[in-house]
Amino acid sequence: MSTPKLIRGLLALPAALLLSGCGTVLMSPSGDLAMRQRDIIIVSTCLMLVIIVPVIFLTLLFAWRYRSSNTQAQYSPEWDHSTLLELLIWSVPLLIIIALGALTWVSTHKLDPYRPLDRIAAHQALPADVAPLTVQVVALDWKWLFFYPEQGIATVNEMAAPVDRPIHFEITSSTMMNSFFIPALAGQIYAMPGMQTQLNAVVNKPGVYEGFSANFSGAGFSGMRFKFRGMSEADFRAWVAHAKSSRDALTRGTYEALAKPSEWVPVHYYGHIAPDLYDAILNRCVEPGQICIKDMPNQNRKAAHAPAKQPLAAASCTAANSRTLRIAMQNAPGREQQ
User: Fold this and answer.
1) Percent of the residues in the chain that have a pLDDT greater than 70, as a whole number
2) Is 190 exposed, middle or buried (0-12, 13-18, 19+ CB in 10 A)?
């Protein structure tokens, strides 16, 4: 082997080692919603390859056929138009754009994260008697807080759900914009303070999956990760019982301490949660005396209809009021010293 080839091979080795650590969770997910999103990626890529592959092939073919050393190639310096070539150049991309547009339109509505699930898997319909599991998610600096309102527990940096049971996520943030992402389950959904986004998803295979923030949010962003556990119904009940056995209660005071910026926070369970705490976080009124966002319209209406403390004439700029103000300023303390 020549020296240049040996050098190129040695340079390619570190790249191969780095790529060996890459996962393919997006291409082999464990949730039906993520699986359908994977299919869209594959179909879109294949449609685009209909253009890319022939263009690359023809580029190489023309470069070889019309090389300077090929004296047998036809030389047509006056050629400038071909109807057939124009039809191919414009019709094929147009058909691909139409196909991609139709795919995007249909999938955007069918895979809307706010839309309740209509199936568990490709060949498994959603049972009529199965209620979704509600999980309320709060993005903190820099950890994740999960409320289970039906079970009365809360967890930090770990969540679990039964296999083949729909999950309804309600997502918000405490301070800054973040992004809730479990690649094996579904696409990422933004978390924003004072607002609530939603996600409906399902996990079809037991396992432990990685969840993280997909939106940079400061110094501790790299450690903003959590574990999502897909398990059987019996294992989920055992997991809930383990969390409820914790003597720690998530009160408003405990939440205020938890919400302070911290990095690489270990998993923690709260066996009891304060009533309406998630609602207070969402409406930014955890601290005493704060007005909840949802109550602000009522406060504004009350203020608009409240009687004025003084007549309008007393607050108007009239000649009498101007004289009163001038006399008061002249008699103000310290006026004689100026």
Assistant:
1) 82
2) middle
CATH class of 25-67+84-111: mainly alpha
CATH number of the 124-282 domain: 2.60.40.420
Least confident interval from 3-12, 69-78, 152-161, 311-320 = 311-320
Structure tokens at 4: 């240049």
Per residue in 11-41, pLDDT tens?
666 665 555 556 678 888 999 999 999 999 9
Lowest-confidence range among 14-28, 42-56, 61-75? 14-28
161: closest CA among 182, 190, 142, 140?
A: 182
Q: Residue 99: in which H helix or E strand, if any?
A: helix 83-110
* Residues in CB range of 222: below 8 A, 6 or more apart: none
Strands 124-125 and 119-121: antiparallel
| Domain ranges within the chain, ordered by starting residue | 25-67+84-111, 124-282
313 band by pLDDT with thresholds 50, 70 and 90: very low
Chain Cα centroid distance, residue 308: 46
Peptide bond into 90 cis (omega under 30): no
Output the 3-class SS for 295-322. Answer: HHHHHHHHHHHCCCCCCHHHHCCCHHHH
**Cβ neighbours, 10 Å, residue 198:** 14
Q: Are 197 and 268 in contact (CB under 8 A)?
A: no
